[in-house]
TrEMBL record:
The lineage of its organism: Bacteria, Bacillati, Actinomycetota, Actinomycetes, Kitasatosporales. The keyword Transmembrane applies. It is found in: Cell membrane. Residues 26-484 form the Major facilitator superfamily (MFS) profile domain. The keyword ATP-binding does not apply. This is MFS transporter.
Length: 500
């Protein structure tokens, strides 16, 4: 693909590589914004015990510090993506950065639970605007296949490995400074990312005739709130709880109603053409299913290392670094080189299978298993697998969409990640708790037995995660039908002489 626009592309506002010579510098600032969003999913987890003690938060309410962020983030993403399309992605990026920084500062200065909760919800709301704006800016910055592959390799590495970095950073800040710095740290990151305003690509907002699909926004937001909140409550109340069942049922009904409404809307919030393309739909599905294994590993290995092995918060964060290294090597090195040459499923399917091998490695884990033989190999294998999944999935989640749909297509990728993480965490946690409870039945609750029960629960959950990842690989192998990029390029060149 050459740097000059072809006749078929001349009508779109999408810049070509030659239009933005500072696109690689722009990638640094976009990557910083994405890192800030991903960090906040896990960095506060480590700080939560200290914040709970400092602010007098009850055990029943502490989960809301996490849930307030994920609930607002996951449920508002589609709306945020469409707002970015209508107002301009560059403008939405800056507004999202400023809002996220202010909400983080408010949370760090919180003197009580209510203010902290409000700040976390605000963080999630601004993240829902910032995340799709960042991904769509990346998509329009890099249009040449090889450069696009490298850029999305970096972005995929951040998306998959940033959570592990958050665990380490949270441990360091909490142990050596204060839990409040787990929120304050976002302010300098946001300021640095905002300095990239001048090097980000110019884009056009929608015309003045464009109107926001308010009924669609209401249906989508309420449906996603019900679904994400239902999954969060399932962790504590169980899947058979009347409240959980009511939330999930209403969420499904609202989202089905949303799809039916969008099919008839003249200006839909989510044009169905975005999700009916097989390759894009497969990319969204791959992201959602892959993070089930990823977040399951974060959740259970954090407890395994801190409760069973008695690691400190900092040591736990350090112990997760090999996973991040695996992601960086895979997404930034292997996937970025192969992505311009092979079909996306040639990377995504092996990546899911590798991740399944990694979670399967943890099934025989015991309380006295050494880190070097049990956890370390699994982290490296899962990291390598996730890098192969996330780089091409994020690339093809926005590949080939109309310019006016890039924001909402990016939002769908982030929504898939949030929904997958919410469902996966709740599902695997419930399975682990049930298995631990069954193990304890009829046994004396000594400290050793309690640790063994925890590990038994983790092992059962990893078995389920492994099955999900293998099944995901089979489904993606069938659904994802995009050819290798060279073939796509040839197909685009053929009709060009007849247009204009």
């Amino acid at each position: 693909m050459s740097s000059a626009p072809r006749p078929a592309e001349a009508r779109t506002p999408v810049p070509t590589p030659g239009d933005n010579p500072r696109r690689w510098l722009g990638l640094v600032f976009i990557g910083l914004a994405q890192l800030m969003i991903v960090l906040d999913i896990t960095v506060v987890n480590i700080a939560l015990p200290s914040a709970q003690q400092d602010l007098g938060i009850s055990a029943g309410d502490r989960q809301w510090v996490i849930t307030a962020y994920t609930l607002a983030f996951g449920s508002l993403l589609l709306l945020g993506g469409r707002i970015a399309d209508y107002t301009g992605r560059k403008r939405a990026f800056l507004i999202g950065l400023i809002g996220f920084a202010c909400a983080s500062a408010l949370g760090g200065a919180a003197t009580g639970f209510t203010l902290l909760l409000a700040a976390r919800a605000l963080q999630g709301g601004f993240a829902a605007l910032l995340a799709p704006a960042a991904l769509s800016l990346l998509s329009i910055s890099f249009t040449e296949s090889r450069e696009r592959a490298k850029a999305f390799g970096v972005y995929g590495a951040i998306a998959a490995g940033g959570s592990a970095i958050g665990l380490l950073l949270g441990g360091l800040l909490t142990e050596y400074l204060d839990w409040r710095w787990c929120l304050y740290v976002n302010v300098p990151i946001a300021v640095i990312a905002a300095c990239g305003w001048s090097v980000l690509p110019a884009d056009r907002r929608a015309t003045a005739r464009a109107r926001l699909d308010l009924p669609g926004a209401l249906l989508a937001t309420s449906g996603l709130v019900a679904a994400v909140y239902g999954c969060s409550k399932a962790e504590s109340d169980g899947w058979d709880s009347p409240l959980v069942m009511a939330l999930l049922t209403s969420g499904v009904c609202l989202l089905v109603g949303f799809a039916l409404f969008e099919a008839r809307s003249p200006r839909p919030l989510l044009p169905l053409r975005v999700v009916t393309d097989r390759t894009r739909a497969s990319a969204y599905l791959a992201v959602a299913l892959a993070v089930i294994g990823m977040f399951g590993m974060f959740l259970f290995l954090t407890y395994y290392m801190q409760v069973v092995k008695d690691y400190s918060a900092v040591l736990t964060g350090v112990a997760f670094l090999p996973l991040t290294a695996g992601v960086l090597v895979s997404a930034g090195g292997i996937a970025s080189r192969l992505l311009p040459r092979v079909a996306p499923r040639a990377l995504v399917v092996p990546g899911l299978l590798l991740a399944a091998v990694g979670t399967g490695w943890l099934i025989p884990l015991e309380a006295d298993t050494s880190y070097a033989t049990g956890v370390l190999p699994a982290e490296i294998i899962v990291g390598l697998g996730m890098g192969l999944v996330m780089a091409p999935a994020m690339n093809y989640a926005t590949h080939g969409v109309r310019p006016e749909d890039s924001g909402v297509a990016s939002a769908m990728a982030n929504t898939s990640q949030q929904i997958g993480a919410s469902i996966g965490t709740a599902l695997l946690n419930t399975i682990a708790i049930d298995a631990s409870t069954d193990y304890l039945a009829g046994r004396r609750h000594t400290p050793d037995v309690l640790r063994e029960a925890l590990v038994e629960g983790f092992s059962t959950a990893y078995s389920v995660a492994t099955v999900i990842l293998v099944a995901a690989a089979l489904v993606i192998a069938v659904l994802m039908n995009a050819p290798r990029p060279a073939t796509v390029g040839e197909a685009r060149r053929e009709p060009a002489p007849h247009m204009g």
